[in-house]
Amino acid sequence: MLRILFKILFYNLQMARFYYALYIFLMISCVGREDKVQEASVKRPTVAVVNYPLYYFAKTIGGDFISVYLPAIEGDPAYWKPDTKQVINFQNAALILDNGAGYAKWMEKVSLPSSKIVNTSMSFKDQWIETDEGITHSHGPEGEHVHQGTAFTTWLNFKFALKQAASVHQALKNILPEHTDQINQNYNQLKNSLGDYDKRMEAIASALNGQLLIASHSVYQYLEQGYGLNLLSEHWEPDNMPTKEQWEAVEKVIRDHKVNIMIWEDAPIQEIESKLVDLEITIVVFRPCANRPETGDFMNIMNENLLHAERVINSF
What we know:
Number of strands: 12
Number of helices: 9
CATH class of the domain at 45-129 and 146-189: Alpha Beta
CATH superfamily of the domain at 45-129 and 146-189: Nitrogenase molybdenum iron protein domain
Structural class: alpha/beta
Distance between the termini: 103 Å
Order of helices and strands: HEHEHEEEEEEHHEHEHEHEH
Strand order of the largest sheet: 2-1-3-4
């Protein structure tokens, strides 16, 4: 009996040693894998951007070779102000993509490494549009602000969007020379798509033939400049009913110039839409897409903009 007990104890001791050795082996293996994951993460540079179009360009061109940082921003990123932690994230990025043309004025008030900053609209600086509008108004959580200085929704001219994408392309090749072939391939696909959108917008503008259009907001300067549109910009918000005076001023423009199209950043509330329908005005929603869309991506939104405009033009 005693001999049997010793055999059982000896067997259990051997099994305990075996499981202990297996445990140590698995722990070492897991640590090794974790180290490899962390090492891979470290090798993937972070690219910080100031708006969603640049996020899309960087992510499309850089793919899985980069991590793109755009903070969660409510409202228009042009008027956003970062907190200390967000500024540090920008400072620590391998590359900072600025829109230029007076966008993201917060960058002038914080310390950022100039060697990492790429102004993506610098190649067409001589075509930036200066504005002299001094109307203070409010839309979104950024509160009251003035559209004054330089117009900055540059990417709405697809010719300029192409140049900004080219700037992103070059910047990514500079920090990831070992992935040049794939980055070139990704960029060429994006370039082709933006080129197609440019041609479609040219066709829309040609069909309008200089007809006066009303824009609900002064964000379409580069769209107007790039395609020879004739725009009169108001300061209306899609979720706020305009005043009696604003309606009277627009009604006079409609009568005097036989306007029948109004461009909006977003679909206006039913009350506004109903009154515009009574005035025989067709609404065209053309979203600038400065911030992350709720659904889809930059190219989806721009395609929807163009489709909407094409349908309206074809209906006349």
